[in-house]
Design a protein that fits this description.
mainly alpha; Death Domain, Fas
Length: 195
């Protein structure tokens, strides 16, 4: 289960009707009036804000502002703990846009070409077995999704230090040279503008 969504769910459960009403009022400049009128729970409000990317796991500033305005210091403290524990990374800890594009292409190729041996690859990337087990449990019958989620978690965990070069090195370290070659080929196409 996504820790950030769990956190938002716990916030939603603890909001009073008055607090929800105040939050809806504070969101009037972000959400259309008709849509706001339909919101009955904190979860519904958070869902809209997530869809519009007014709040994301990497940018919780608007959420902090909402909680501060409704004077829920306890929830602010929970959010701060969540951020401090490394679950939410600051934007400056994220890779630059060019590196993100490269990572996206590399991850697509890896997900299309690495099968049952994906755990070996993740271990080469120093990714934790406990997290892999949690991902497998959440996606028990979907091998590709297990790999996708593991790579995304690795990306979040490494932040700015997540490099495509590390993915290629790990692939070669696992003997997956054909996949590494294919990643390099796709990246050169991307860099030459052909992709």
């Amino acid at each position: 289960m996504d820790p950030f969504l769990s956190l938002l769910h716990s916030f939603s459960s603890s909001l009073t009707d008055r607090e929800l009403s105040s939050m809806k009022f504070l969101c009037m400049d972000k959400i259309r009036k008709r849509k706001l009128e339909d919101v009955q729970t904190g979860g519904e409000l958070f869902t809209i804000l997530l869809e519009q990317q007014d709040i994301t796991r990497y940018d919780v500033a608007f959420l902090e502002e909402l909680l501060r305005n409704i004077k829920r210091e306890d929830l602010l403290l929970k959010l701060k703990q969540f951020v401090d524990e490394g679950e939410v990374k600051a934007p400056e800890d994220q890779p630059d846009p060019h590196e993100k594009r490269l990572q996206k292409v590399a991850m697509e190729v890896i997900c299309d070409n690495v099968g049952r041996d994906w755990k070996m690859l993740m271990r080469k990337l120093d990714f934790c077995d406990v997290k892999m087990d949690r991902i497998v449990e959440a996606n028990p019958r979907d091998l590709r999704e297990q790999l996708v989620q593991s790579l995304r978690e690795w990306q979040r965990w490494r932040g700015r230090d997540a490099k495509v070069a590390d993915l290629i090195t790990a692939l070669r370290g696992c003997g997956m040279n054909l996949v590494a070659d294919r990643v390099e080929q796709e990246l050169s196409l991307l860099n030459s503008g052909a992709r």
